[in-house]
Amino acid sequence: MNANAKTPELPNGVLYEIQKMYYDTAQAYNQYTLPTFTKVVPLSHILYGTDYPFAQPGTVTKGLTEFGFSAADLRAIERDNALALFPRLKTLMKDSVKKAVRDWLTDSEIEAMMLRRDLLVAHFTRLIAELGEEKVLY
To answer: What is the mean pLDDT of residues 63-75?
Structure first.
């Protein structure tokens, strides 16, 4: 299937849908995966991740640095891209999730996802209040 082929389920094509999602660097931090990864995924949709303990933070950071990202791009991947998602996470509503996932998730799965969202937002909001944004969202 052509990545730009349009279907009734994917009226804008597969590539369009792939580029709307966010991806972490847990298994995409080396010389083999990064060239394709960065051609397919917009930089603004790449988030730092490690899959610790399987991929160590130092190994991921080294791979990203050696790839040649600029300092601004590394800051975006390591912090700014995720930080930009936080307000959206806080306002995410069940109805919009249901619409986006259609029949792929059950109501109970969506409820569980929303509960996890509430716990994450509460946790980070508390940490920011106690420690300050710069120490939590570094």
So the answer is: 95
- Cis omega (within 30 of 0) on the bond before 53? yes
Give the residue carrying structure tokens 């619409």.
99
pTM of this prediction exceeds 0.85: no
* SS3 per-residue string spanning 7-61: CCCCCCCHHHHHHHCCEECCCCCCCCCHHHHHHHCCHHHEECCCCCCCCCHHHHH
**Per-residue b/e over 68-98, b at no fewer than 16 CB within 10 Å?**
ebeeebbebbbeebbeeeeeeeeebeeeebe
* Domain residue spans of the chain: 1-78, 92-138
The two structure tokens encoding residue 78: 């390591």
Angle 32-34-37 from CA coordinates, rounded to 5°:
120
